[in-house]
Design goal:
alpha/beta; Alpha-Beta Plaits; Oxidized Rhodanese, domain 1; 3 domains; five-stranded mixed β-sheet; four-stranded parallel β-sheet; 14 strands; 30% helix; globular; binds zinc ion
Length: 345
């Protein structure tokens, strides 16, 4: 029985091209008590592999968090499969607005300690005591009121390319950092202000809202289904769109355009741009914003140093990487001294 991927990303891309099939990019999550995550993981992998589902899925004792690409023709089968699992029956599926058949090229189902790396000790507070969920229309009204603090619960590189107008966008690398920062900033307003929060698909707010209530905030609201669901409702119900720019997404597309505004700049030349790329130098792989001109001039790298390295024969590059720890830990996402125009707050 096959429990893991056999095809490389390249082979998969070629297969998708050949098949010419329509695929849907979607995501969902659910907090639920899962007794044996490994068994559940295998169950999912076998079923989804059969349906040619691709994506990145985390399974933990606390639930499931899934980002997927499903062949359109298998969608019914996929949906029926979910409905057959008691805690996933009618789970809200966030369907991406911009479709890309190659949003995911592998099926990876991983067992983790948690479905979101939130750094929280769940034993210390009641995770089920969540904030009030609001839909797009209610959210639009709510954020206009004077006693509201609107907080973006995502990381700096996400809010950089798109966020709600008037939102506080913490300059943080992790969810945990932003929880502390916001609490510190709002410590004197736990009772008189309404704390309204949002994230990509809603999952981070599920924990954050419960955490803030535990910390004494009296009025906590969260955008139901996050930016993804907001954009869908805005389009479907012809509501005013108060989100500017792109919604950063964690698949091959990296960003989904929600409004035509370009609110960020190329990190190398400073001109308006909101296209995230990874530095072509495998030893660097820095995530940053780069315009097409700079991409060409820099040969898709983040710096002169990386440009020189990728000009070397591959074997020499590999030799150079030996003994150097994973650079993702050195250069944080979108942060490098070499980027002249990175955002500063
Ligand atoms: Zn540029
Ligand atoms: Zn680089």
């Amino acid at each position: 029985m096959q429990l893991y991927n056999k095809l490389s990303a390249k082979e998969r891309a070629a297969l998708i091209d050949e098949a010419g099939e329509d695929r849907l990019t979607l995501s969902f999550y659910q907090y639920a008590k899962i007794g044996n995550p490994h068994l559940f993981r295998n169950h999912l992998f076998i079923a989804w592999d059969e349906m040619a589902v691709l994506g990145r899925i985390y399974v933990a004792h606390e639930g499931i968090n899934a980002q997927l690409s499903v062949p359109a023709q298998n969608f019914e089968t996929f949906k029926n499969f979910l409905d057959g699992i008691y805690f996933l029956e009618n789970v809200r599926l966030n369907i991406a607005i911009e479709q890309d058949a190659k949003s995911f090229l592998k099926l990876k189902v991983k067992v983790r300690d948690k479905i979101v790396a939130d750094g929280l000790n769940d034993e210390t507070f009641d995770v089920t005591n969540k904030g009030v969920h609001v839909d797009a229309a209610t959210f639009n009204d709510l954020i206009e009121s004077d006693d509201v603090v609107l907080v973006d619960m995502r990381n700096h590189y996400e809010s950089e390319i798109g966020h709600f107008k008037n939102a506080v966008t913490p300059d943080v690398d992790t969810f945990r950092d932003s929880l502390d920062l916001i609490e510190e900033d709002l410590r004197d307003h736990k009772e008189d202000k309404k704390l309204v929060m949002y994230c990509t698909g809603g999952i981070r707010c599920e924990k954050a809202s419960a955490y803030y209530k535990h910390k004494g905030f009296k009025h906590v609201y969260q955008l139901e289904g996050g930016i993804i669901e907001y954009a869908r409702q805005v389009e479907q119900l012809k509501l005013e769109n108060k989100f500017k720019g792109k919604n950063f997404v964690f698949d091959h597309r990296r960003g989904e355009r929600i409004s035509e505004d370009i609110i960020s700049n190329c990190h190398q030349c400073g001109k308006p741009c909101d296209t995230h790329v990874n530095c072509e130098n495998e030893a660097c792989h820095l995530l940053f914003i780069q315009c097409e001109e700079c991409a060409e001039a820099m040969n898709h790298t983040c710096s002169d140093e990386c440009k020189e390295i990728i000009a070397l024969p591959y074997e020499v590059q590999k030799e150079l990487r030996k003994g150097i720890p994973n650079s993702n830990k050195i250069f944080k996402k979108g942060r490098s001294e070499k980027l002249k125009f990175k955002r500063s707050l």
